[in-house]
Amino acid sequence: MEKLSVFLITKNEEERLPATLKAAADIADELIILDSGSTDNTKVIAEKHGAQFHVRAFDGFGQQKLAAQNLCRHKWVLNIDADEVLSEELKTEIRDFLNDAEKVEHFDGGSIWIKGVLPGEVSPRRFARSYNRIRFYNKTKLAFPEHSTFDNIDFDPAYHIHQFRHIILHYSFLSIKALNQKARTRVQFYFEQEKKGAWLKNLIRLPFEFIFSFVKCYFLRRHFTEGLYGLQNSYIYAKYRHIRILQRVLNRPLINS
Fold it and tell me: At a CB cut-off of 8 Å and minimum separation 6, what does 253 contact?
């Protein structure tokens, strides 16, 4: 059976991290955490669950995940976020995959459906938002891009990607207040990292960005299934998308703290 390294990046994740690590520890031969300066009990929790705890200054999402991947000793790796929990069925699937010599030889990686779970709930609602990502892979063949604001491994026809049937549970926010603060922080970071070009394109987008982003989030991403949470989530998403475009037009940050 192939051995597996599970890795994740963190910063101040003491509230959600225990459930994440408890589930991951069931299938991980090593647990790697790359932190970017937590001031809470993230390190204590990590070490309690047997994870190796490393620290690196944050310079971008893709760079941080790639650096964490490079700390892994084993060829097969699984990336999860600190707010994600592996389902029991998925853990069984991953074990079966690693124990199947033909699959290990043939596939470069595996794609997993990730489904959102609302605060106070333990499982996704019917028709909950979901997205499919390559999170399980052979690191000698695939890797995260060195990109500040993009942290997904792109699908490519040249890859041999296995599709897992079962899911990762995504506890994406603890409260609306926490979600709003996360969005503010990201918009501030994005301005520092993104190119300031395409001024005319952004000016044309500006009047329509809020309504387009709201419709995209509420309907296309199916947040309408989440009741009041979905409405508030979509509003926050649209508001900060609008601010992000406005910052590009004005060429100055509008979020300073």
Answer: 188, 191, 192, 247
pLDDT at position 257 over 60: no
Cβ pair 33, 7 in contact under 8 A: yes
Alpha helices in 194-252 (DSSP H): 199-215, 227-250
Domain chopping of the chain, boundaries: 4-170, 176-250
The alpha carbon of residue 247 and the mean position of all alpha carbons in its chain are separated, in whole angstroms, by 24
Long-range contacts of 124-129 (CB under 8 A, 24+ apart): 124/167, 124/169, 125/225, 125/226, 126/225, 127/222, 127/225, 128/222, 128/225, 128/226, 129/221, 129/222, 129/223, 129/225, 129/226
> What mean pLDDT is predicted for residues 139-150?
94
What band does 195 get if pLDDT is binned at 50, 70 and 90?
A: low
Residue pair 141/108 in contact (Cβ under 8 Å)? The answer is: yes
The confidence score (pLDDT) of residue 143 equals: 96
State if pTM tops 0.90: yes
| Distance in Å from the first CA to the final CA of the chain | 48
Fold of 4-170: Spore Coat Polysaccharide Biosynthesis Protein SpsA; Chain A (3.90.550)
Interval 87-101: pLDDT, tens: 999 999 999 999 999
pLDDT tens digits, 202-224: 999 999 999 999 999 999 999 99
Pairing of strands 52-55, 109-116: unpaired
Best CA proximity match to 5, nearest among 21, 39, 29, 26: 29
Q: Where are the beta strands (DSSP E) in the chain?
A: 4-10, 30-35, 52-55, 76-79, 84-86, 109-116, 130-138, 161-170
